[in-house]
Amino acid sequence: MLRREGTLFLLAGLFVLACTVALTLAPFARANSWGVEIEDLRFWLLPGTWLACALGAHFVARRFLPQHDPYLLPIAYLLSGWGLAIVWRLAPRFGLRQTLWLAVATAAMLGVVWLAGDLRWLRRYRYTWFVLGLALTALTLFIGVNPEGFGAELWLGGVFGVFLQPAELLKLLLVVFLAAYLADRREQIFAPQAAPFPRFPYFLPLLIMWGFSLLILLAQRDLGMGTLFFLVFLVMVYLASGQAAYVLVGLMLLLLGGLFAYAAFDVVRLRVEAWWDPWADPSGRSFQIVQSLIAVAEGGVFGRGPGLGAPGLVPVAHSDFLFAALAEEWGLLGMIGALALLGAFVLRGLHIAARARNAFDQLLAAGLSALTGLQALLIIGGVIKVVPLTGVTLPFMSYGGSSLLVQFIMLGLLLRLSGSQAKRGL
Amino acid sequence: MPPHLNRLALVLMAGFFLLALAGGYWALAVQEQLRARNDNPRRLLLERRFARGNIYDRNGRVLAETRGRPGAYTRYYPYPALSPVLGYVSPFYGLAGIEAAEDNVLHSGEPQNWWQALTGVRPAGRAIRLTLDLRLQAQVDEALGRRTGAVVLLDAITGEILALASHPGFDSNTLEADWATLIADPGAPLLNRATFALYQPGGAMQPFVLAAGLQSSVINLQSPLAKAGDTFQSGALVLPCRSDPPGPALTLAEAFRYGCPGPFAALGEALGARRMEQLHSDLRLLTAPDIGLPTLAASAPDFAAEAAALGVGQGSVTVTPLHLALATAAIARRGQLPVPQLLREVEGADGEWRAVTGSGNPVAAFTPAVAEQVKALMRNGHPAVARAGAEGRTLAWYLGFAPYDDTRYTIAVLLEDGDVAAAERIGLQVLKAVQVTP
After folding, report:
1. Which of A214, A364, B342, B387 is the Cys-Cys partner for A179 at CB 3.0 to 4.6 Å?
2. What are the residues of chain B with a beta carbon less than 8 Å away from any beta carbon of chain A?
């Protein structure tokens, strides 16, 4: 199994190297001449750092979890390396930061792999973790900042230029909390005699915790994250109860909430209108989405080629609209490739859930996979006008240190879950 | 897998599949519409990498050229006064003028082979040569000076446009820096007044109405007409003679010389709807000239109701200076109305110049005898005034030609300030300069 991981890592490494070479050659191709002075070769930090991280991940995971899933790591590193190459190409300043974040995230992931044990500690102190996450997120209401200096103040810190977005951590803790609580209480909550409604006294703590997190996110106008929380909650309840009715009711509630938000928040109204009819105001409210669709169209099937398009025309291409940049330079084939890789990651996660030895492990693995998948669907769907735009990051790929860090911690947890399954089998 | 995990996996995968379909929709199904949008500057950004073709005048002098090195090409216009004609090319503000009209030639071509397709390399754009003569253009611009108006100088034989001036203008070299000022300027400096602005012709119609009258034999130039010198009134419109006549009784020839409108209103009436319509269509006044640049023409009026007003050029037919320069050529060249031409040659992919043939043949608007008769009456050209529409603004026209025998050049001058003497002076100054320029 681990030989397979090595082979996949080799392929991923070749791809990242090819990306870097393409970035190096792009200025010459743009000028159609060798007589161009190279200004900036710092992006060669990318394959160097990437290789160190990938080797570290491969060998540490092999050492401590010899039976871990062989697909998760190569997929995650391929997506991260690809995303990093695109961020470097769009904004070298952010590329440098994100490369350092990859090293930090890898260290955190390996920490989880090495030290996490059987995750019982995570389950036992579920309220502590979650309240901690809530408190940190609530803190942004008072001392939140935005690294750009304007916009929603969703970050904490600014120490040595490092900013953290606690909502990213909160989303992981929400899944942990839901998995722990539902694993303990699902018999009581969804007892057959109580159907079709869950039994309220047991369901209440869940609603309270989840309600708090939604409130904080709504207060912060972080609606993308709010939607994501709602969907993850529905998925977890569905998995615990096995009843689709909850999902249907929940989706209806989401729709009602959406209608309410449409009426109450200007941000929501603008986003929904920009989504429903972007052609009405292509130079104003829907400038981003129209430019994004133009970028996708410019990409065609094969794309303009890495470094050869003009994806910088789409505002904030390195974070919210990274997928548009990918579509322009890598084309439809690149889009399908990225979607397939993300889909494969989610499927492997669900596979781990299916083989879990207890309810908590199953809910945790499925929750983390669903979270990754839903987040990818939300942001990609927003970029290509399938759903209204929400400002969540593209997992593993788009710029955002906290997001990458949490994504890799989630990866570490999934590895841990997959590794301990096999040990039990011995 | 437990069934509910199965279903979750199915829903999520369906989501990814749907997104791939949506991506395919934008990237394939509606690709061309999206790429062609005005707010997609990528096509024009390519001009930084692949040189845009140069624009030359008829003698090979540069009017617009691509400078710099690959990746940082810029467009340079050595003679900025021509900007309203040449237009501009800007990733922010799009294309205008000749740059827009001939963009399919000037812009870089499609990749030629698989290697170019892979690296996105394109062949450079091709150059064009206009019929404009930069030396004559400079003289026209100098003569027009700071006045608001337009001048069209034509080769009356071939219909080639030798100079095309529109003032006030702008400088395409600094368009992006000046844009906010330019679009807010009430003087409309971005407008090409010579080809894309419709003006009331007023007294400038007199030579042509006179020719139509002579052609249909409804008039006699030398018989005296009572009250011909009186001020003409029609509704709110009050039109005196352009210059004071010696007395109220004039011959038609004298009325023409002094620019008195009365007899021409009567002449329009006498010609009637059918012959007035014939005149307007023979002179192509209701057709937008086809010169590559965007041009305008008025829509057909109710000739029966407006015959008298059209006789004095105060009907609903408005014209561009180019229309009247062409019509003047018909008077000066034995009734032959030339076909206007602005693009002279196009560079082929092989670097050879290919002549552009005109889009039609000259048409006979008047008989040679009638044209000669009218030409003799306007030996020094024809200055005229017009009252523009609702605001009652006065426009000044001058139509002229040179030399008198075997005429080579015709000119139409329009001044929005209504200064007829200045219009005449500008026209005569240009015609004089044209004849000494080799």
Report:
1. A364
2. 1-5, 7-9, 12-13, 15-16, 18-20, 22-24, 26-28, 30-35, 37, 39-42, 45, 49-50, 69-71, 118-121
